[in-house]
């Protein structure tokens, strides 16, 4: 469909590349703790496919933007 072409689903490895080449181990840790971007789980059980929408990766990256270290500290204290 057109919407899928405009917002592709990426594998974990491809998502790691989009996010600057972080390791899959770091990405899996973020996912397990709820700190990473939202994802899709396709199927059930240990063989379920995890996919990430490109738009969600971009949204998540935007949410990580900071102008100073003080900004991060203020948000953490709130």
Detailed description of the structure:
It is a single chain. This protein has 78 residues and is α+β, with helices and mostly antiparallel strands. Helices cover 53% and strands 13% of the residues. The chain contains 5 helices and 3 strands. The protein has a 3-stranded antiparallel β-sheet. The N and C termini lie far apart (42 Å). The relative contact order is 0.15.
Short description:
By secondary structure, the protein is an alpha+beta fold. The chain has 5 helices and 3 strands.
Number of helices: 5
- In round numbers, the mean pLDDT is 86
Q: Which spans of ≥5 residues are poorly predicted at pLDDT below 50? A: none
For the largest beta-sheet, the strand count, sense and barrel status come to: 3 strands, antiparallel
> If strands are numbered along the chain, what order do they take across the biggest sheet?
1-3-2
Backbone structural class: alpha+beta
Shape verdict: globular
Helix content: 40-55%
């Amino acid at each position: 469909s057109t919407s899928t072409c405009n917002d592709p689903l990426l594998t974990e490895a491809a998502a790691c590349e989009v996010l600057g080449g972080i390791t899959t181990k770091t990405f899996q840790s973020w996912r397990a703790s709820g700190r990473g971007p939202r994802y899709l789980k396709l199927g059930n059980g240990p063989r379920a496919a995890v996919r990430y929408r490109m738009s969600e990766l971009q949204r998540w990256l935007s949410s990580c933007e900071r102008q100073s270290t003080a900004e991060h500290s203020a948000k953490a204290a709130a």
